[in-house]
Design brief:
- The chain is an alpha/beta fold.
- It has 3 domains: 202 residues, Rossmann fold; 154 residues, TPP-binding domain (Rossmann fold), CATH 3.40.50; 182 residues, Rossmann fold (3-Layer(aba) Sandwich).
- 33% of the residues lie in helices and 14% in strands.
- It is built from 19 helices and 16 strands.
- The strands form 3 sheets. The chain has a 6-stranded parallel β-sheet with strand order 2-1-3-4-6-5, with helices on both faces.
- Helix 8 packs across helix 12.
- The radius of gyration is 25 Å and the shape is globular.
Length: 605
């Protein structure tokens, strides 16, 4: 069993009584069952920091020191992607919060729970030091992130802090899950308690059971699906539960329904199943378009941008199929963030969590069909073939992005690999997901720099499992968050980071090509202001400088399988490893341009 308690052990003290106001939020983290807190330190929460070290003994929660606030948020996000439960993160005053806002936004868009602790002040002006405390104090600091968090608070007493953290915990864990922010007054933290603080029984502040759909709604949906000739289930944001996974498979088989999944989300359905059509992708691919065009009943289970799918089909609000949309996401929609996407025309709206509704549907459908499934066991058109395990190239040939997936397949050999992230060039048709923890989705917010931190957070959550976390990241993405590696090295968090290194911000090269073609200008200039070369970055040395063993650059097909095998063995020994793989720029699945919706090129796969 992995044990982080050997790291950063404080000198034992006899003074572990709850005496200071900052001891209260520290105690609350422990009572709420928070195991870890990732942080970048700062003076605004020095009282709270002391309480976690000298009052709690740096245990439950255990601190994970990060070199940047964005890493602290990314690690907490990665942890939530595995566990579906929050860990804590802490950021310093307004400046640390500003650094970490992208991580908050990612968690918000990904509906990932995080208990974010922060600080400001001292709020009482006479307590502020000249200069520095003034510029690190903000009035209504929560306004910085209120548009993309579920809730925030700035409690003004020890008693208020107890209630604030109870509420924050409940809100973060209630679907749609998401980040919450509790901001502690620096002055209040350092006040001595004048009497005992009452902390109630945590069992009286549990998260409510998820609501269920009415019998009428369940029957309407079940009857429509049973009577459909071409039903399609679109599996979006769903749980990591194995029993929920099994229910999704059983429902599809009972109905004989085709299934589509999305690579922006965690693994939702076995991609090698005979009813799964096409590879998971960021965009609706031709196989899925063909399927949806003939569908007579479509069920979106918290599908990201359902309206965007219909737009891609060219039907907008006019799709002839009966559309059932199962999601509770609208409960957190607001007027600032467009992450609510387009408004899909819907015949039956089901405001229930997807896996709850799937369980109800399965029960109803099984009963109505007398337990006789409609699927005949034959693979449907568009179902994926077996995994590709051998790179079909000469040993000295250059590598394409898809070759990383193929090489990883070839060396799995029964290993349980959790892909924490894949790059935009990923070839989904070559690599299967057969377990809910085989793939953890994307960052949510579509930015850069979170991949390494997310992988480390996932590795933290998987410490006591038999799974190996592996991230496949682009070089441009990685370099914006690469110093997260130090945290993995310091705490011996086993994770493999593979860089699909095309020496470019290639996604933007594709955009510049699209603009140039539209304007009848030379597309050959697309690389200017995009290429990360001349000089090339020595990524392996960068990783090694932070204490992470590394190899690369790997440049040929003959080198890659053995390099990945060696890297996996290091991770299996309990250490992080970094592998730089140089690939030809390009995508396996064409991207989509903004104006016309036409697919862009991408020169290689």
């Amino acid at each position: 069993m992995a044990d982080l308690s050997k790291f950063d052990r404080p000198v034992v003290t006899d003074n572990q009584q709850m005496e200071w106001t900052s001891d209260v939020p520290a105690e609350m983290l422990r009572r709420l069952g928070i195991k870890y807190i990732s942080l970048n330190p700062g003076a605004s929460y020095r009282g709270f920091h002391d309480s976690m070290v000298n009052y709690l003994g740096n245990s439950d929660p255990q601190m994970l020191l990060c070199l940047h606030e964005d890493h602290a948020l990314s690690i907490a996000h990665g942890y939530a992607s595995v566990t579906e439960q929050p860990m804590a993160a802490a950021v310093h005053s307004n400046v640390g919060l500003l650094h970490g806002l992208m991580g908050v936004f990612n968690a918000w868009c990904d509906r990932a729970p995080i208990l974010l602790m922060g600080a400001t002040g001292p709020v009482d002006a006479p307590l502020r030091r000249p200069w520095i405390d003034w510029i690190h104090t903000a009035k209504d600091q929560g306004a910085l992130l209120r548009n993309f968090t579920k809730w925030d608070d700035e409690p003004r007493s020890a008693e208020a802090t107890v209630e604030s953290m109870l509420r924050a915990n409940m809100i973060a864990r209630t679907a749609p899950k998401g980040p919450v922010y509790v901001c502690l007054d620096a002055g209040l933290q350092e006040e001595k308690l004048t009497g005992p603080v009452t902390i109630p029984d945590m069992d009286r502040f549990k998260v409510a059971e998820s609501p269920r759909a009415s019998e009428k709604v369940v029957n309407e949906a079940a009857d429509a699906l049973i009577n459909a000739k071409s039903p399609v289930l679109m599996m979006g944001r769903v749980s990591r539960s194995e029993s929920d996974w099994d229910n999704r498979v059983k429902l599809a088989e009972m109905l004989g329904a085709r299934v589509i999944t999305d690579i922006k989300n965690c693994a939702a359905f076995p991609t090698n199943h005979g009813l799964h059509v096409g590879p998971p992708s960021n965009w609706i691919r031709d196989e899925s378009k063909d399927l949806l065009e003939i569908a007579d009943v479509i069920v979106g289970f918290d599908w990201i941008d359902l309206a965007g799918v219909f737009k891609a089909l060219g039907v907008g609000f006019k799709h002839k199929a009966k559309v059932i949309n199962c999601t509770v996401d609208q409960y957190v929609h607001n007027g600032w963030s467009m992450d609510y996407f387009g408004l899909a025309a819907t015949d039956l709206m089901v405001l229930v969590e997807p896996d709850v509704f799937i369980g109800q549907l399965l029960e109803a459908v099984t009963k109505k069909l007398d337990g006789k499934q409609k699927w005949d066991g034959e693979r449907v058109p568009g179902a994926l073939g077996p995994e590709v395990t051998v790179i079909d190239k000469e040993a000295g040939d250059t590598l394409w992005p898809r070759d990383i997936a193929i090489a990883l397949n070839g060396v799995k050999k029964g290993r349980k690999i959790t892909l924490t992230r894949v790059n935009l060039g990923w070839a989904g048709e070559t690599y299967h997901f057969t377990h809910p923890l085989d793939f953890l989705g994307n960052d949510g917010g579509g930015g850069l720099g979170s991949g390494a931190g997310n992988a480390i957070g996932a590795g933290l959550a998987l410490l006591d499992s038999d799974r190996i976390p592996v991230a496949v990241l682009g070089d441009g993405d990685f370099m914006q968050g690469g110093t997260a590696l130090w945290t993995a090295a310091h705490y011996s968090i086993p994770v493999l980071i593979i860089i699909a290194n095309n020496r470019s911000n290639f996604n933007d090269e594709v955009h510049q090509e699209a603009v140039a073609i539209e304007r009848n200008r030379p597309k050959e200039n697309r690389w200017i202001g995009q290429r990360i070369d001349d000089p090339p970055i020595d990524l392996a040395a960068f990783a090694k400088s932070q204490g992470v063993d590394s190899a690369g650059p790997i440049e040929t097909a003959g080198e890659l399988p053995a390099a990945i095998e060696a890297a996996l063995k290091v991770v299996e020994s309990g250490k992080p490893f970094f592998l730089d793989v140089r690939v030809v720029p390009g995508y396996s699945t064409p991207m989509v341009t903004r104006a016309s919706g036409e697919a862009s090129t991408g020169t290689a796969s």
